[in-house]
User: Fold this.
Amino acid sequence: MRPLTEDETKIFFEKLSKYIGENIKLLLDRPDGNFCFRLQKDRIFYVREDIMKRATSVDPKHLLSIGTCFGKFTKTKRIRLHITALDYLAPYAKFKVWLKPNAEQQFLYGHHVMKAGLGRITENTPQYQGVVVYNMNDLPLGFGVAAKSTDLCRSCDPMAIVVFHQADIGEYIRSEEMLI
Assistant:
């Protein structure tokens, strides 16, 4: 387990800033302790610093995971955020989308969000911006990328895609072995 390099940190923080903007600072300096990001086998973990220091006594070959997996680097050095990061992204999200009950199930099966299933959207959401997807009861379901801005959503066809699916809580069941 090692700290992220400068390039890796830049790539990772750019991806996180699409979803939570300047609130990345709030993830690192929390009132319940200092947290940091560490890399283990191309996976980025979010862990308390005191736990991370204790983990140094464990042989890296035997360390499967520590903390919460936020995502992983692909072979092309891009970041793929995992659903396990949702609990940390949702409270700090800048842009949010709420789904109607009939579109909830489709999103949880891994489909994109159509305009017909859109309940509400945060004002002034730009196109291709990261959004956190909620149901109408404010339960975070996952996250994605806005396919259309708020203004375009108002005038588009009901079958037009408004949010591209990235991850949802249904992945805990569908891709259980991949989330480690």
